[in-house]
Structures are given as C-alpha cells and as structure tokens.
Write a structure and sequence with these properties.
Blueprint lengths: L2 H9 L2 H26 L12 E2 L7 E2 L5 E4 L4 E8 L2 H6 L2 H10 L3 E6 L8 E9 L4 E11 L2 E10 H6 L4 H9 L2 E2 L10 E3 L5 E4 L7 E5 L1 H6 L9 E6 L9 H10 L4 E14 L2 E12 L5 E10 L5 E9 L3 H13 L1 E3 L2
Antiparallel strand pairs: 1-9, 2-3, 3-4, 4-8, 5-6, 6-7, 7-8, 10-18, 11-12, 12-13, 13-17, 14-15, 15-16, 16-17
C-alpha cells in the first residue's frame, strides 16, 4: 500500500479502516453485480403473451399486435411462438419444416448454423413477398425448459440493404433466445362474438389465428383437410396507416396464397366495430386440390394504424352454407386495440 492510500490508512483508527475497507468491498461487489445484471442473462426481455425471452435493446419495443418486438425505425418484427416439446421433432427434418413454412408463404428456405448458439436448435433463412413489402426471414426453432420455442425475424429487404438492421445483429438476438418458466401476461388482440360451426385451431404458427370446423361439423363436410372450410384472422405486423383501404383490399385479395385463377366478384364498404372495412367476395382454384373455392375477405382498418385481415375459404359448391357464416363471423369481430 503506497502513496495516498498509505497516508489514509495511517490517519484512521484501525476499526475505522476496517469499516472503510468493508464498505469499499461492498461497493465494488454492488457495482460488479449491477454490470453483471446489465450485460448478463438478466438483460433478456420477455414480451407479454410468451415464455420466450430475447436479449434486445431499447430500440425494440414490445409489440401491441403480437407476442414479440418491433423495431419501428426499420419495420423489423420479432415474432415469438410458444410450442409443445414434440413440435421440435416435427421440425427436425428440413423437408417437414420447409413444407410448413412454404405453406405460410416462405420461399427459398435453407438451413444454417447459428453463431454462438448451443443446445438443440434448427435455424432457417428464407424470404417472403407481400403485396406491400419484401421480407428476409430468419427463423430459429429451439428446445429448452421442456418446451419448443420459435422466433421469426421479419426484416424488410430495404432495411437490410441500407444497414439499418444487420444480419449479425439479428443472429446475435436469435442466439440469446431462452424459455422462461411462465409467460408474461398479455391481453388478446381481438375477440369473436360469433364462431358458428368453427373453433380455434392452435396448430397455426405466428400471429395468424385460424378457425376450423368443429369435430361434428367436420365429419359432415366433404373432401380432405385441404378442402375443409377455414377462417383466418391476421393482424398487420406494423401500425402503418392504410391510406386507401379499398385499393389495399384489392391487392390483398390478389395476393391470397395457394390459389390460382382468382376472380374478385364483388366488394362493399362497411363498418365493423365502428371501424372502416371493405368486404371482398370471389373465387379461385385451390392449388393443392384443384377444387373451385369460395374466397371471402374483409380488411378492417385498426384504430391506431395498420389493419386486420379476415379471410374465409370453403369449397365453391358449399358457398350457400359458409358465406353466411363467414359474414356473421366478420360482423362479430371486435379489435381490442
């Protein structure tokens, strides 16, 4: 001990010197603990509605539209999906995973290693083209804490090209993903006051909610699973205002995936839950079954920007049965934002 520290030690009674040393050690421990929490595992942030936590900084805000985070400056979204443990095995084969992702509009799916990630995981990259924006998709599926987690990063291609968001940044975030014991509390984005012969289908991934026929109704419906009536509710990932909801509705109808030779037969403007909405009714050919299909769509403008897209599909020869049901479901749609 030299210099000023020696002078301080000589000037203090022994008991005060011991107290001072203990206080300094305690302060040092507190500072180390603070920085350990700041830069360690406790920096993980868990959004409402999910058990999954990620190491994201404050430029990512918890989304009000889905379980996950949004980066407003770039339009990037991180969508978190909680799945049962068995789902990991279902995704473990590239063919199975690619088919499921392709069914949701993801193309060019390829599997990669994720730097700095250990344990059991599968990591894919792909692309998705929408009527408004082209996205690069980074998808992590991992097994942890007796469950399977799925993190999907949707990054506008323009944001990647400009460097607003980078691939290493996104991969660092994905590598941090972990599953906690309990989901953070969240509130539902919408409710349906009427579902008729349909019930929610929990097998769909991501932000879209799906409704399929109940067991008894399904037994009476003709055709295989690809021909069964289906109703979907999909919120926009961002709250960008829709300037012309009519024009947007037409583009969205043209962009309905897995159907060819689509025909838009009629459109009508309306109010749903006091919000501007456009209903579009048409038909198309199911790309999987080749069957003519009723296509029903309603786009509802959200209160704080963005939109909800309601989509009903049923065999064309069952139009008279399901078009009234789809309309009742749409009229009973109630956003909670």
């Amino acid at each position: 001990m030299t210099g000023v520290w020696q002078e301080l030690a000589d000037s203090l009674p022994r008991q005060y010197w011991i107290i001072w040393i203990c206080a300094a050690v305690a302060l040092s421990f507190a500072v180390c603990s603070f920085y350990s929490r700041s830069y360690g595992r406790d920096t993980l942030r868990q959004p409402p509605g999910s058990r999954i936590a990620l190491a994201v900084d404050e430029t990512f805000a918890p989304s009000e539209r889905f379980a996950g985070f949004v980066h407003e400056a770039s339009g990037t979204s991180l969508i978190l999906t909680d799945l049962p443990l068995v789902a990991f095995e279902q995704f473990s084969k590239l063919g199975n995973a690619a088919e499921r992702l392709k069914a949701q509009g993801v193309s060019g799916v390829s599997q990669h290693l994720l730097p700095s990630r250990g344990g059991d995981y599968i990591y894919f990259r792909g692309e998705k083209t929408t009527s408004l924006i082209d996205y690069a998709k980074y998808i992590l599926i991992f097994r942890d804490a007796g469950a399977t987690g799925m993190v999907t990063a949707n990054i506008p291609v323009a944001a990647l090209s400009s460097g607003v968001v980078t691939e290493p940044q996104i991969e660092t975030i994905l590598a941090s993903a972990t599953i906690r014991a309990k989901a953070a509390e969240g509130k539902p984005l919408f409710s349906m006051s009427y579902s008729g012969p349909f019930e929610e289908d929990p097998s769909l991934l991501g932000t879209t909610k799906g409704y399929r026929l109940k067991g008894a109704e399904k037994a009476h419906a003709s055709g295989g699973r690809g021909s069964q009536p289906l109703f979907l509710v999909a919120p926009s990932l961002a709250r960008v205002p829709v300037e012309d909801i009519g024009a947007f509705s037409r583009r969205a109808f043209d962009g309905i995936e897995q159907f060819r030779d689509k025909q838009l037969l009629e459109t009508s403007e309306m109010k749903i839950a006091g919000l501007d909405a456009v209903e579009a009714i048409g038909r198309g050919i199911n790309g999987g079954t080749g069957r003519p299909t009723l296509l029903f769509q309603v786009v509802v403008a959200a209160r704080k920007g963005g939109y909800f897209r309601l989509l009903g599909m049923a065999p064309e020869d069952a139009r008279e049965n399901y078009l009234p049901e789809f309309r009742k479901m749409a009229r009973g749609f109630q956003p909670h934002d």
